[in-house]
Design goal:
Blueprint lengths: L2 H14 L3 E5 L2 E5 L5 H8 L2 H7 L6 H12 L5 E6 L5 E11 L4 E8 L8 H15 L5 E7 L3 H9 L3 E12 L2 E11 H5 L10
Parallel strand pairs: 5-6
Antiparallel strand pairs: 1-2, 2-3, 3-4, 4-5, 6-8, 7-8
């Protein structure tokens, strides 16, 4: 079966029964489920994403097992990103949640054919609003390769500030990459002049 057709069918199946649990102005978030493993496997196998994020393809079984473990982890929330027409376009997560310190990390991955359409910013804004509007977070962080221009732009647009560089912190494709370290604090989020998720 043609891989593109298979992924398209997966997206159609995934959107059929999705319940949006959180939303922003132009994106809905649905809780990631084990049935989303094929979508995640396809997205993670994209060579551009693998390079920009510093990941490597895993087997479908491994992705499914990872999702199953993550669902049981109370310190993270993983979401499928849905476009306004309910098409799955990517993944966003709030991980490493420390309620005592009020800290967490954000992760974002978009499907190749849905990049550059504003979905990343919308999803990041939504999960940031969840962290500060519903959870007692005070500081969010994110990391990406210093040459991952699209991710750097999305983080900046969502109000994150680059606070430093972790030099040679990631080994990928036989060479070391620097990681840009970003953060967003609750007072900075409060000053952002944009609609909140609950106003969408």
């Amino acid at each position: 079966m043609n891989e593109n057709i298979r992924i398209a069918d997966d997206e159609h199946d995934a959107e059929a029964e999705r319940q949006i649990v959180w939303r922003a102005e132009s994106a809905g978030l649905a809780a990631l489920d084990i049935d989303d493993a094929e979508l995640m496997h396809g997205w993670r196998s994209d060579p551009v994403a693998a390079h920009q994020i510093g990941i490597w393809p895993r087997s479908l079984t491994a992705v499914r097992e990872r999702i199953e473990r993550d669902i049981e982890d109370d310190d993270r929330d993983d979401f499928l990103i849905l476009s306004p027409d309910s098409t799955p376009v990517g993944y966003v997560a709030l991980t490493g949640q420390n309620i005592v310190n009020g800290t967490a990390q954000v992760e974002l991955l978009l499907a190749a054919r849905h990049r550059g359409q504003g979905h990343g910013t919308a999803a990041l804004d939504a999960v940031v609003d969840l962290a500060f509007g519903e959870l007692p977070m005070y500081r969010l962080t994110a990391e990406t390769h210093t040459d991952n221009t699209p991710a750097l732009a999305v983080l900046a647009k969502s109000g994150f500030t680059q606070e430093g560089i972790s030099r040679a912190a990631c080994l990928h494709r036989g060479r070391r990459h620097d990681l840009a370290v970003f953060s967003l604090l609750r007072p900075e989020w409060e000053e952002l002049a944009r609609p909140r998720a609950w106003d969408a």
